[in-house]
Design goal:
single chain; 202 residues; 5-stranded mixed beta sheet; 8 helices; globular
């Protein structure tokens, strides 16, 4: 289970507060990529908080409500929309969303732990933590918030674009989604720089 050892080591070296950052939605063919940043209070613990991919949708929702309603927890959220993804590429758009999420925190962090590899040019001292959402409790919290926020956005987009089934697959390239793309063509929320969508446009 994730823990606060990395955060504790940084705090002991005077790098306080420490934020954990994670994203959701790099792989889908449609919708935004979403990033969250979270600062947990010192000594925080939780028996069930884990990488969002290892948590059921129902538990994710419960954890999200718990995290975002706890006044001791600081959190920020940011989106990189489809136009930005197509213009910059998915990696740079993800980095931009992560930067905005960190800057959206109500308290500016001194150091950030970012899930994955280092992010070049990040405006706050930071380091990447590979598979950090299973190691760092603050990154795990960010993974929950980012995932739930993105899923809820996709639910909204499903109402606007009901032909594609966004409420079921959240924009990922499932068989049903690809069939809908072939039948109806891409909508405004499809990433035209991603190969399965680009092929249809061509």
């Amino acid at each position: 289970m994730p823990h606060l050892e990395l955060e504790r080591e940084l705090v002991e070296r005077g790098r306080d507060p420490v934020a954990g950052i994670d994203e959701a939605g790099r792989g889908p063919l449609a919708g935004p990529v979403t990033a969250a940043a979270v600062i947990l209070p010192r000594g925080y613990s939780h028996d069930f908080l884990d990488d969002s991919k290892r948590v059921s949708p129902r538990r994710r929702d419960l954890l999200y409500e718990e995290l975002t309603s706890d006044s001791r927890i600081c959190w920020g959220i940011a989106f990189a929309e489809v136009g930005e993804i197509d213009e910059l590429n998915i990696l740079r758009a993800t980095h931009a969303a992560m930067e905005r999420a960190a800057l959206a925190l109500p308290v500016r962090p001194v150091f950030c732990l970012i899930d994955g590899l280092d992010v070049p040019g990040f405006p706050i001292d930071a380091k990447g933590v590979v598979k950090g959402d299973g190691i760092s409790l603050s990154i795990a919290a960010a993974s929950i918030i980012a995932k739930v926020k993105r899923d809820r956005r996709m639910q909204e987009l499903a109402e606007e674009f009901p032909l594609y089934g966004f409420e079921r697959h959240k924009g990922y390239g499932t068989k049903a989604h690809l069939e809908a793309l072939r039948e109806y063509g891409p909508c405004r929320e499809h990433r035209r720089s991603f190969a399965p969508v680009a092929k249809l446009i061509q």
